[in-house]
């Protein structure tokens, strides 16, 4: 007979109380085992969203989520290990060029990634545009590739933080994703269980992110940095702008193509800037502060590491990306400057085109997506292309057009330039 009941735990938090260590350990474990019902955990998640959690509660909750599964041992990897996690955005393909870039500079990058849901894209969905590429690796394959290649991007195994897997799916359908204690513990339990020595967090702020304002993003970043440090993981966070999509491409295959441009030494300036800013933080955290990631992009070492990484997981790095059957080019109806391109609306447009999924089990379209022809601040003349919508089926276009149409604002004067990296929390 347990000393705890789900109803007492829910009531404690509902009434603004502090959960004891025993209550937290019990409820996370019992939920993972199916002894606490989904409706009870939903009520508790909502109470946490409304009442918050103290720092010691968040730390204990995170530890309980880690303890629900296995913790990987990366000691066979001789290079220093360092990972990056983004809280999710629109056009955020940074993991693709960043992982091989940091590996090319001497660290090992154990990237356990996810799939997109809603308007945000998922790294695994993007990489699956590459024919033959395999997201599922066994732990032995993961560690061997990390040791031999220095770069792995793959799906987290079922045994890693299973409490989070269950709880995240429940939060997604109960309006409780946005709770800072739950986001922080969800992300950090997986990253700590993965065994990385250091971690750089890219905490997104703006319309296309979970955190819509800087204060919330700062609180989330601080919470995660403290959790990482408490578990012996060197952790820093950058708050970065997600009011505008990153780069010009939003979708799956189109984002792989843009990542290859960056790895070839080109690509949009904002994608290059953020890739290099995160690479420098990662190399610093890994104890390699003298590495020069800009040189590794220029001289082809990062591209070589990409090709090796893709081949190691069965992918063909030379396979052409599939083209979309339907392409709708939208042109400017006014002269002026691009005053803003709303990340959320473009993310929803890409989703409507088929690049994202409505339910976890849905497939995504490989060629679907939005390709921007302009960035905020660019001058524009009537008739010039603003963006194009790509889809496999024509009936996808009208709903996407309605979203994208309200995303792009043209004004008589150029807007003030906004910084991409807003703040560093370390
Ligand atoms: N990503 C996660 O892994 N968990 C969250 O709760 C939010 C974003």
Structure in words:
The strands form four sheets. The protein has a four-stranded mixed beta sheet with strand order 1-4-5-13, sandwiched between helices. Strands 6-9-11-7 form a four-stranded antiparallel beta sheet, with helices on both faces. It has a three-stranded antiparallel beta sheet with strand order 10-8-12. Helix content is 43%, strand content 16%. The model has no long low-confidence stretch (mean pLDDT 96). The radius of gyration is 22 Å and the shape is globular. The protein has 16 helices and 13 strands. By secondary structure, it is of the alpha/beta class. 53% of the residues are buried. The chain starts with 5 loop residues before the first helix and ends with a strand. The protein has helices at residues 6-14, 21-32, 38-51, 55-67, 95-104, 123-127, 139-148, 162-172, 180-194, 214-230, 253-263, 269-285, 293-298, 301-312, 343-353, 397-407, and strands at 82-86, 109-113, 151-155, 198-205, 234-241, 249-251, 326-331, 336-341, 369-372, 379-380, 385-391, 408-411, 421-425. The protein has three domains: 6-52, Transferase, Pyrimidine Nucleoside Phosphorylase, Chain A, domain 3; 82-157 and 182-312, 3-Layer(aba) Sandwich (Pyrimidine Nucleoside Phosphorylase, Chain A, domain 2), CATH 3.40.1030; 326-411, Alpha-Beta Complex (Aldehyde Oxidoreductase, domain 3), CATH 3.90.1170. Bound molecules: uracil. Uracil binds next to helix 9.
């Amino acid at each position: 007979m347990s000393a705890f009941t789900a109803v007492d735990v829910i009531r404690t938090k509902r009434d603004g109380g502090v959960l004891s260590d025993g209550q937290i350990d019990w409820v996370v474990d019992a939920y993972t085992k199916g002894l606490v019902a989904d409706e009870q955990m939903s009520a508790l998640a909502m109470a946490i969203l409304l009442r918050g959690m103290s720092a010691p509660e968040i730390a204990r909750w995170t530890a309980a989520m880690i303890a629900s599964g296995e913790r990987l041992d990366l000691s066979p990897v001789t290079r220093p290990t360092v990972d990056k996690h983004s809280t999710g955005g629109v056009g955020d393909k940074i993991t693709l060029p960043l992982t091989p870039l940091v590996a090319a500079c001497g660290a090992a990058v154990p990237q356990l990634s996810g799939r997109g849901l809603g308007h945000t894209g998922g790294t695994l969905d993007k990489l699956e545009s590459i024919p033959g590429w395999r997201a599922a690796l066994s732990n032995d394959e993961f560690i061997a590739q990390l040791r031999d290649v220095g770069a792995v991007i793959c799906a987290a195994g079922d045994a890693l933080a299973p409490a989070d897997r269950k709880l995240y799916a429940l939060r997604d359908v109960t309006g409780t994703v946005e709770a800072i204690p739950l986001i922080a513990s969800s992300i950090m339990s997986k990253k700590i269980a993965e065994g990385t020595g250091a971690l750089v967090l890219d905490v997104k702020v703006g319309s296309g992110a979970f955190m819509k304002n800087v204060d919330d993003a700062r609180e989330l970043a601080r919470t995660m940095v403290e959790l990482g440090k408490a578990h012996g993981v060197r952790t820093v966070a950058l708050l970065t702008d997600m009011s505008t999509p990153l780069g010009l491409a939003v979708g799956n295959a189109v984002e792989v193509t843009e990542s290859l441009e960056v790895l070839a030494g080109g690509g949009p300036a904002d994608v290059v800037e953020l890739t290099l800013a995160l690479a420098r933080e990662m190399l610093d955290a890994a104890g390699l502060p003298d590495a020069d990631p800009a040189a590794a992009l220029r001289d082809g070492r990062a591209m070589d590491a990409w090709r090796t990484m893709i081949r190691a997981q069965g992918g063909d790095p030379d396979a052409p990306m599939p083209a979309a059957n339907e392409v709708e080019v939208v042109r400017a109806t006014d002269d002026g400057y691009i005053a803003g391109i709303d990340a959320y609306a473009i993310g929803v447009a890409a989703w409507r085109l088929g690049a994202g999924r409505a339910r976890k089990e849905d497939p995504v379209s490989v060629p679907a997506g939005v390709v921007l022809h302009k960035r905020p601040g660019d001058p524009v003349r009537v008739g010039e292309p603003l963006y194009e919508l790509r889809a496999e089926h024509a009936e996808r276009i009208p709903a996407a057009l309605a979203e994208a149409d309200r995303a792009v604002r043209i004004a008589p004067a150029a807007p003030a330039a906004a910084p991409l990296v807003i703040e560093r929390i370390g």
